[in-house]
């Protein structure tokens, strides 16, 4: 905890900010990329959102109060940037959020960065059909192995609500994956 406070102080100090920020990017870019990628599903979009996320983190690091872990704060920014990106993309295409999700899943097969097999594609299709909150909670718990307490800070939701969302998501995924 003391180490993180020193790191945050370096990020907020004009003289050490750039070096500390390079370290931050190096340390978190892959984790944040995959978090974003599971939301937006497309590699190029994930890269764009990741860049926007780091710009927002850089511009707002002086506002970080330390009420949550730095990691949780950054994940919240990445999550919000991803959801905003998807809403804007749907609005620009004049389609619903659900239609956009379906379109993104269909495009996964053509995405040269998607290395999944048939079952992984089917899982992604099933995840895309989940309501937004269940989709976020499932991805964070299943793929990123976050604890409910961490997710609670990131999504600003109670642990009980998150457990319920995860349970419902798993049930819906099981139903979807076993129907044929």
What does this structure look like?
This protein is 78% helix and 0% strand. The chain has 180 residues and is mostly helical. It folds into two domains: 1-115, Rna Polymerase Sigma Factor, Chain: A; 117-180, Winged helix-like DNA-binding domain superfamily/Winged helix DNA-binding domain (Arc Repressor Mutant, subunit A), CATH 1.10.10. Helix 1 (2-12) packs across helix 2, helix 3 (43-60) crosses helix 4 and helix 5 runs antiparallel to helix 6 (118-128). The model has no long low-confidence stretch (mean pLDDT 90). Residues 121-173 form the RNA polymerase sigma factor 70 region 4 type domain. Residues 24-90 form the RNA polymerase sigma-70 region domain. Keywords: DNA-directed RNA polymerase, Sigma factor, Transcription, Transcription regulation. Belongs to the sigma-70 factor family. ECF subfamily.
Features:
180 residues, mainly alpha, Rna Polymerase Sigma Factor, Chain: A, Arc Repressor Mutant, subunit A, 2 domains, 0% strand, sigma factor, WH-like_DNA-bd_sf, DNA-directed RNA polymerase sigma-70 factor
Q: Please write the string of helix (H) and strand (E) elements.
A: HHHHHHHHH
- Global morphology: globular
CATH T-level topology of the largest domain? Rna Polymerase Sigma Factor, Chain: A
How far apart the termini lie comes to 50 Å
Radius of gyration: 17 Å
Task: Please give the count of helices.
Answer: 9
Report mean pLDDT, rounded to a whole number: 90
Structural category: mainly alpha
Domains, number = 2
* Low-pLDDT residue spans: none
Any idea of the CATH class of the largest domain? Mainly Alpha
The CATH architecture of the largest domain can be given as Orthogonal Bundle
Beta strand count: 0
